[in-house]
């Protein structure tokens, strides 16, 4: 394991409070010179600190299905499984809740999919939960996360992938310094309880059903 990877894992474990003695941390969200909110990491103790995350995240997922490349019946049990097993237990993934100054959850975003040899990763799970008020909170939250990634994690490159038909999100990322690199073809897969679009095709002549737009922070 190289030093960069070891450092990322250690920082993420610390912010996720993997050890009981780890201190709880917040990342400030600023609008120019004014403090307007915080990025609050989802920790291993979220059920004790904020058990409402499960139902809130489920609701946000239902209301923002356009941003995801899979469709399934949302339930609190499924969200809890995702938090416990897919998010928190993955060493190269972290999620922050976007909070107002009063602590109200407004959305979430994070980092995932590291390429440690390149000191790069992707912006992950960007969702605005509260649609009314708090103008500019998502842009400023994204900027704060990028600043933390560059200065604390020492990232060289930051990427993201967004569904190409989600034009609103693409414009949002363009306004915040991301530029399109290329499209990634996606192929529809229908399962018993889920429809998803994946990057692996079943046959050579299969045509893409959708695309990811892959973007890089310039």
* Amount of helix: 25-40%
Radius of gyration, Cα only, in angstroms? Answer: 17 Å
| Strand order across the largest sheet | 1-2-4-5-6-7-10-8-9-3
Topology order in helix (H) and strand (E) letters: HEEHHEHEEEHEHEEE
Mean pLDDT: 95
Count of distinct strands: 10
Note the gap between the termini: 28 Å
**Class computed from helices, strands and strand pairing:** alpha+beta
Biggest sheet statistics: 10 strands, mixed
> Tell me, what's the shape?
globular
The fraction of residues assigned to DSSP E strands is 25-35%
The poorly predicted ranges are none
Number of helical runs?
A: 6
List the main descriptive attributes of the protein structure presented here.
218 residues, alpha+beta, 6 helices, 10 strands
SSE inventory with pairings:
Layout: H1 3-15, E1 27-31, E2 34-41, H2 46-49, H3 53-63, E3 70-72, H4 76-87, E4 94-100, E5 105-115, E6 120-128, H5 137-151, E7 157-163, H6 167-175, E8 178-190, E9 194-198, E10 210-217
Parallel strand pairs: 6-7
Antiparallel strand pairs: 1-2, 2-4, 3-9, 4-5, 5-6, 7-10, 8-9, 8-10
Can you walk me through this structure?
This protein has six helices and ten strands, in the order αββααβαβββαβαβββ. It has helices spanning 3-15, 46-49, 53-63, 76-87, 137-151, 167-175; strands spanning 27-31, 34-41, 70-72, 94-100, 105-115, 120-128, 157-163, 178-190, 194-198, 210-217. α3 (53-63) crosses α4 (76-87). It starts with a helix and ends with a strand. The mean pLDDT is 95.
